[in-house]
Every structure is written in structure tokens, then in C-alpha cells.
From TrEMBL:
Keywords (A to Z) from UniProt: Isomerase, Lyase, tRNA processing
EC class: isomerase
Residue stretches making up the Pseudouridine synthase I TruA alpha/beta domain: 9-104, 149-243
Gene Ontology terms: biological process: tRNA pseudouridine synthesis
Record note on quaternary structure: Homodimer.
SUPFAM superfamilies the record matches: Pseudouridine synthase (SSF55120)
Keyword Isomerase: yes
Record-listed substrate binding positions: 110
GO molecular function, one term: lyase activity
Name of the featured protein: tRNA pseudouridine synthase A
EC number: 5.4.99.12
CDD domains, per the entry: PseudoU_synth_EcTruA (cd02570)
Family recorded in the similarity comment: Belongs to the tRNA pseudouridine synthase TruA family.
Organism annotation: Lunatimonas lonarensis
Amino acid sequence: MKRYFLEVAYKGTNYHGWQIQENAGSVQDTLQRALSKILRRPIQVMGSGRTDTGVHALQQFAHFDIDELGASSDFLKRVNAVLPSDIGILDVREVAPDAHARFDATWRSYRYVIGLRKDPFEDGLVWRCFYELDVPQMNEAANLLLRFDDFESFSRVKTEATHFRCKIKSAKWEQKPNHLIFHITANRFLRGMVRAIVGTLVLVGRGRMTLEEFEGIIKAKRRVEAGSSAPPQGLFLSEVLYPVHIFV
């Protein structure tokens, strides 16, 4: 039995997140159905992590097992022909038999895109936000995140997480002519964490929260202290990194 990693991209608008759910379409279920059809046997995939309803992925990874896959180029053509237009398999690579898409990931990156003007071609892909935002102040607040490792204040209240510790490697806002893009990289993320951080940072940018208050929210470890979550359509899982040695 061989193990393979799939590199997947998807537009999450029409899905209730990555993970399989009863009576709701998910990316994972759609992918498993396509793989099972092409490979003519039941296939189960394990993703590098969950994305919520309406959230997108520029790079998601998932692993699955099969005796022999055959030529990767032929496999990619066949499975992409079966998948809907909003899900694409970018690559497939054989990995070590014990490699795990979720547990072997070392760093995960998200980006959150705020649109500063109405653009019909970006519908469902940005948060249209017309507030006057103080970007340097938002970056000052984002930099405070690197000083802490417990982010319970930015986690969903109902969660399966056994702890709220995350190592944030970087967090910053990038100013574009018509967009603000928040980039964040960590070893793990809590459910709803990035959207809660973005929603709270926007309050800082609007002048409705000071840096001291933002830091106090982190220390409070209570979700009710933080701001409302930013809407899902602006969020993208952008990169997942693994140690080189797991690839065959």
C-alpha cells in the first residue's frame, strides 16, 4: 500500500467547509466521491486541516492510500475532469507510508482579503469594507500576537481543541491600491481564529480599540472580549509546509 499527498485548491463558496457533514456538501466528500469513481474503489482522504463554510484554499493538502496510482499526469487529468469547476487537484506526490497530511504539517498560512472598492468580479472572494482604516496601527496590534502563545480569546467557544496554544510566526497587513491583505503563519490554528483576529484588528484600525485593549483581549482568554468575526468569504488557506523528508 502506498500513500499519496494531493495538493488541492478550491473556492469554498458552495461548500459547508472542508470536513464531511451530514446533509451538507463539503469539499472532502466531493473529493472522495471523485477519487472513488476514478480509482474504482472506496477512497478516504485526510486533510491538513479544516476550513469553515465559505472559506477558500489556494493550497490544501490531503493524503490517501492505494496500492498503485499509475502515471500522475494521467491521474490528474482524469480526476480533474470529474471534479466540479470550483475544486482542482494541482499535484499528487508519493510520500512515506506513515506521512500524515495533518500531523506532519509544520507551518500553515492564511490570508484574509479586504476589498476597498466594489468589484463585481470579486464577489464572494473578499470582504467589502469601506471604513477608514489605520493600517500602521493594525500592524502594531498584529505584531502583539507574536508575544503570546494562548489564543483562547480568538477561538470558537464550542470546540474539540484540548488546548489553545499556537506559535504564530508572522502576522502583518499588506496595503494594496484596492485591497488590504492580512497574512498570518502559525504552527496550528484554532477554529475561527483568523476571522476573529481580523474582525478585532479592524476595530483597532477604525479607532474603536486601543493597542492596550487589544493586548488585554489576548490576555483575557475569553472569546466574548474580542470583536465579531470577519465574514468567511475573504479568508484563504494559502500555504501548508512539510518537512522535505516525508516525500519519496
